[in-house]
Amino acid sequence: MRTHAIAAAALIGLLACTTGAESRFPDPAVDPAPAKAGTQTAVFAGGCFWGVEAVFEKLNGVSDSVSGYAGGKKTTANYELVGTGTTGHAESVQVTYDPAVISYGKLLKVFFAVAHDPTQLNRQGPDEGTQYRSSIFYATPEQQTVAEAYIRQLDAAKIFKRSIVTTVVSLEGFYPAEGYHQNFLVQHPDYPYIVYNDLPKLEHLKKEFPELLRR
């Protein structure tokens, strides 16, 4: 489960995420338009869903960002069970976006550069367990192609000091988390975990990718 009280450990996790990458990330070399026009969804897992959700909510072209669970069964998609690390679920975020405004590749760019540290295996900062793993759940063959190509691109360019451990797997189902988890950062901006782990991500986003932000 999340370690709320240990501010120092949270800060160490934050630094691991923000200092492991170069200041500017490359655009994905492979980023074709989706096969179908209209609104698309993407699901990402990168540790605690509070901060990941908040980051994607800030992007122009994103109409919704929902915290939830992916990777396991519907019957085990609840916070208490997922927190045991035995359900197969990862804390995840479903992003609804308009690819005419922001591409899937640009979402991946933000996911790797800002939302989390993709070199940490089964953890993010102070949070440990498979439920905090880095994973991309693709909904279409196009998403799979773009995600796998971008990981190869980032690794080849040695953007991170360590290899990316993010898994790319088929989305079998996404299950929204309990209501109190939704928009948690907005509702609780002074919560210690948010202050040490997630608010700096938003500052990093504003600094590095102002052109992607909602006006």
Report on this model:
It is a single chain. This protein has 215 residues and is α+β, with helices and mostly antiparallel strands. It has a single domain (7-209), classed as Peptide methionine sulphoxide reductase MsrA (Peptide Methionine Sulfoxide Reductase, Chain A), CATH 3.30.1060.10. It contains seven helices and eight strands. It has helices spanning 7-19, 49-57, 79-82, 104-115, 141-156, 184-187, 192-208; strands spanning 40-46, 62-70, 90-97, 123-124, 127-128, 134-138, 167-170, 174-176. The chain has a six-stranded mixed β-sheet. A two-stranded antiparallel sheet has the order 4-5. α5 links the parallel β6 and β7. α1 (7-19) packs parallel to α7 (192-208) and α2 packs parallel to α7. It starts with 6 loop residues before the first helix and ends in a 7-residue tail after the last helix. Mean pLDDT is 90; it is low at 3-23.
Major β-sheet annotation: 6 strands, mixed
Instruction: Provide mean pLDDT, rounded.
Output: 90
Secondary-structure element pattern, one letter each: HEHEHEHEEEHEEHH
Question: Approximately what portion of the residues adopt beta-strand conformation?
Answer: 15-25%
Q: Give the tally of structural domains.
A: 1
The total strand number stands at: 8
CATH class: Alpha Beta
In order across it, which strands form the biggest sheet?
7-6-1-3-2-8
Classified in CATH, the superfamily is Peptide methionine sulphoxide reductase MsrA
Q: Specify the overall morphology.
A: globular
